[in-house]
């Protein structure tokens, strides 16, 4: 009976909405006092890459769709240390308002990255947008002056929620999914994913964990915890009971996940361009986290940008997508695409692809520590970054080439 109940619970189907899971951590809860901002992106365009742009005021790096439609960014950071992301919201639109005349979320973030230096700049920028804005979203923003906030935005107005305000974020962080806190109660999506992420962070606080980019990728982007039923696939005996197969329902990483991004901000005394943008491209559980430095935005790892032999895709995304749909989501007929084989990601034998890739990612973080130390001492050169990018690109390519079935 226990086995049957477990399977029934997992058989609820998802709402077919393209959503995201995100959080901002202020410097109060990070070991080095630098803020962190995270987003797991869910979308219908699974081919993503990183691209560098030159804005009216600032150069910036952005996560974009491949192929790029032009003038859109889905998370990014500029050389002034301004970082922005979004999650779709489904409970703050004005009922009966179907206006779509504005630019939309991707366009707003693209423009903001080229113009804004601070959270206050973004507030003023929102006020300049033509109404209706064609937006129903939560925007997360951090800057190089300690600013950290979410903005709940619809077609005509916005509400700021300051993550530095203890009445808003008493524990120094806040999680957002696909509803707005000031929106209509119990409408929207992502309540279970919200609680999944909040539970992981609360456990981290309880255990005295150091909140770092690596912690976020491992404990949030790759979490298979379901807060509603209290099951964590990494710890569950259900893998054997279900032969490793599960419904793709209410976990933070999902079939629709196209990337995980973590922005590592700066603290007083740092240069604004010491900001780092980390990205695990495509499906985070079987991807590798790669850092990119705003100090030299034109110097990026080859595996994260458009390939010369491909019209739009980056190599990292291609490598992960091939593995994802060949091994983790292999069923195409009927409702098969709603099921995933978790035992291909993680298993008791230690042969899951996440387990095989972990040593390579640990190596990337170890190499990154050396470069970050130079960055914060003001000694990092463009040549250092170029050498580093070549090294981690080789580590990643070799990691996927050497995977064993």
Topology:
Elements: H1 2-9, E1 20-25, E2 36-42, E3 48-54, E4 59-65, E5 76-78, E6 83-88, H2 105-115, H3 119-128, E7 137-142, E8 148-153, E9 158-162, E10 173-176, H4 191-207, H5 213-221, E11 225-226, E12 231-232, H6 238-241, E13 245-247, E14 257-264, E15 276-281, E16 289-293, H7 315-328, E17 339-341, H8 342-345, H9 353-376, H10 382-401
Antiparallel strand pairs: 1-2, 1-10, 2-14, 3-4, 4-5, 5-6, 6-7, 7-8, 8-9, 11-12, 13-17, 14-15, 15-16
Helix pairs in contact: 9-10
The beta-strand count equals 17
The geometry reads as: globular
Number of domains: 1
Strands ordered across the widest β-sheet: 3-4-5-6-7-8-9
Corresponding CATH superfamily: Penicillin V Acylase, Chain A
Main sheet specs: 7 strands, antiparallel
Class from secondary-structure proportions: alpha+beta
Q: Average pLDDT value?
A: 93
Provide key terms for this protein.
405 residues; Penicillin V Acylase, Chain A; disordered N terminus; 17 strands; alpha+beta; globular
Structure overview:
- The chain has 405 residues and is α+β, with helices and mostly antiparallel strands.
- The chain has a single domain, classed as Penicillin V Acylase, Chain A (4-Layer Sandwich), CATH 3.60.60.10.
- The chain has ten helices and 17 strands.
- It has helices at residues 2-9, 105-115, 119-128, 191-207, 213-221, 238-241, 315-328, 342-345, 353-376, 382-401; strands at 20-25, 36-42, 48-54, 59-65, 76-78, 83-88, 137-142, 148-153, 158-162, 173-176, 225-226, 231-232, 245-247, 257-264, 276-281, 289-293, 339-341.
- α9 (353-376) runs antiparallel to α10.
- The model is unreliable at 1-17 (pLDDT under 50).
């Amino acid at each position: 009976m226990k086995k049957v109940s477990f399977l029934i619970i997992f058989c609820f189907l998802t709402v077919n909405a393209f959503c995201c899971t995100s959080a901002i951590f202020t410097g109060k809860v990070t070991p080095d006092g630098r803020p962190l901002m995270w987003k797991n992106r869910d979308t219908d365009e699974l081919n993503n890459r990183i691209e560098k742009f030159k804005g009216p005021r600032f150069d910036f790096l952005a996560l974009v769709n491949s192929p790029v439609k032009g003038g859109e960014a889905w998370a990014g950071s500029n050389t002034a240390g301004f970082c922005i992301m979004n999650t779709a919201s489904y409970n703050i639109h004005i009922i009966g308002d179907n206006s779509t005349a504005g630019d939309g979320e991707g366009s707003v973030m693209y423009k903001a990255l080229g113009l804004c230096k601070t959270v206050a700049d973004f507030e003023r920028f929102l006020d300049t947008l033509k109404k209706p804005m064609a937006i129903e979203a939560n925007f997360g923003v951090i800057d190089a002056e300690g600013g950290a906030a979410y903005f709940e935005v619809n077609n005509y107005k916005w509400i700021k929620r300051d993550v530095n305000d203890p009445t808003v974020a008493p524990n120094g962080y806040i999680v957002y999914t696909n509803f707005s806190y000031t929106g209509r109660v119990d409408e929207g999506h992502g309540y279970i994913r919200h609680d999944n992420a909040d539970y992981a962070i609360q456990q981290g606080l309880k255990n005295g964990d150091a909140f770092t980019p690596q912690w976020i990728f491992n404990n949030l982007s790759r979490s298979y915890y379901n807060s509603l039923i209290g099951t964590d696939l990494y710890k569950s005996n259900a893998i054997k009971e279900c032969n490793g197969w599960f419904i793709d329902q209410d976990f933070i990483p999902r079939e629709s996940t196209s990337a995980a991004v973590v922005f590592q901000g700066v603290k007083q005394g740092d240069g604004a361009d010491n900001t780092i943008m980390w990205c695990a491209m495509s499906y985070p559980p079987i991807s590798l986290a790669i850092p990119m430095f705003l100090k030299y935005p034109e110097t990026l790892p080859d595996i994260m940008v458009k390939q010369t032999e491909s019209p739009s895709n980056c190599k990292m995304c291609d490598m992960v997508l091939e593995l994802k749909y060949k091994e983790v989501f292999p069923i195409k007929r009927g409702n098969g695409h709603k099921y995933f084989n978790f035992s291909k990601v993680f298993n008791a034998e230690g042969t899951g692809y996440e387990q095989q890739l972990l040593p390579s990612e640990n190596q990337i973080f170890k190499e990154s520590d050396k470069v970050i130390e130079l960055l914060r001492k003001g000694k990092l050169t463009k040549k250092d970054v170029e050498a580093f990018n070549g090294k981690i690109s080789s580590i990643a390519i070799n990691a996927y080439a050497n995977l064993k079935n």
